[in-house]
Amino acid sequence: MSWLTEFVRPKIRTLLGRKDVPENLWHQCPACQQMIFQRDLDANLKVCTHCGHHMRASARERLAWTFDDGAFTIIDTPRAPQDPLRFRDQKRYSDRLKDAREKTKLEEAIVVGHGLLGGRKTVVAAMAFDFMAGSMGAGVGEGIVAAAKLAVLQQAPFIIYTASGGARMQEGAISLMQMPRTTIATQMVKEAGLPFIVVLTDPTTGGVTASFAMLGDIQIAEPGALIGFAGARVIEQTVREKLPEGFQRSEYLFEHGIVDMIINRLEMRATLSRLVGLLAPVAPAATDLAA
Fold it and tell me: Where are the CATH 3.90.226.10 domain residues in the chain?
C-alpha cells in the first residue's frame, strides 16, 4: 500500500464527503436483463420500459393504480382463527404468519378497498403474492366474502386482482373450504345484478384458479401472466407429452377462449372504468326517486 491509498485518498474522501448510493436506485428487468431507473419504473407502473415485461406489484399498488386519483379506503376484514391446526414443518405456522406480517405490513394475503372508478362506487380486492405466496387460507376467504358483501351493500361492481400460489397448506382442509366459500361470495354479487370482474396477474395458480378466479363476468389478464391449476412439469409427467410453447401463459389462454382480453397495465384503469360503466346497473335519476 502506498501513501496515496493510505493517506491521500481518505483525506480527499473526508473533504469531499462520500455519498452512499441507495440500493434500490436501479432495477434489473427479469425478462430482458436491462437496467431501469427505479423512478422511471415506478412511473411506468412497474412495466419494463425496454421490453414491456409486467413485473409483480403489491396489493396496495394495485388499488392505487385502479381508483380515481389513487384515492381509496381500506376496510378491516374479519380476523380468521390463528393457526387452527397448530401446524409445524420446518417452522411454526404462527411464526410464518408473524414474519409475513412484519415483512409486508399486511394482516393477510389480501387487501380490500372501496372508492371511485370512473366516478362510480367500486369495490376492489387485491391479493398480495408477497404474503406467503398469496396462498388462500381462511383469512383470504374472509376478505373476499367481506368484499362481496360490501359490493352488494353499496350496489357497486366488484373487481379482484388475483395473485396466488394456491391453497395454504398449513390450514389443511380449512383452506380447501375457502374454494366453495369464495364461489358463493361471487355468486352473491352476480345475483344482485352487479358486475364481477377478475384481473388475472402473474402468477394465478392452484385452488384460486379452481374457484373464484375463473368465475368473472369478464376475465382480464395481464400480458405474460402465468395462469393455471397444476404446474406444467406435473402435467407433462401425467399426460406424458410435451406441452405447447407458452402453455399456461395469458396469451395461450386468450387464444383458446379462457381469457376474454389481455390488457396492458398502463391501460388497465381506463379499461376497467369503461367496463364498469357498461356493466354496472344504472342508478335511478333524482326525478324518478321523487316520483
Answer: 56-281
Tell me if 41 sits within 8 A of 25, measured CB to CB: no
pLDDT in tens, the chain (291 residues): 565 556 656 666 666 555 555 567 899 999 999 999 999 999 999 999 999 999 999 999 999 999 999 999 999 999 898 899 999 999 999 999 999 999 999 999 999 999 999 999 999 999 999 999 999 999 999 999 999 999 999 999 999 999 999 999 999 999 999 999 999 999 999 999 999 999 999 999 999 999 999 999 999 999 999 999 998 889 999 989 899 989 999 999 999 999 999 999 999 999 999 999 999 877 544 444 444
HSE (CB half, 13 Å, CA atoms) of 82? 9
Mention the CATH class of domain 56-281: alpha beta
Indicate the length of the chain as a whole number: 291
Beta bridge partners of residue 220, listed in sequence order: 199, 261
Cell of 162: 388475483
Lookup: cell for 165: 400460489
- 151-155: long-range contacts, CB 8 A cutoff, minimum separation 24: 151/123, 151/189, 151/192, 151/194, 152/188, 152/189, 152/192, 152/194, 154/114, 154/121, 154/123, 155/121, 155/192, 155/194, 155/281, 155/283
Contact 230, 207 (CB under 8 A): no
Residue 73 in grid coordinates? 379506503
DSSP H or E stretch at residue 180? helix 178-191
**Residue of 102, 236, 237, 80 whose CA lies nearest to 168:** 80
pTM of the complete model: 0.89
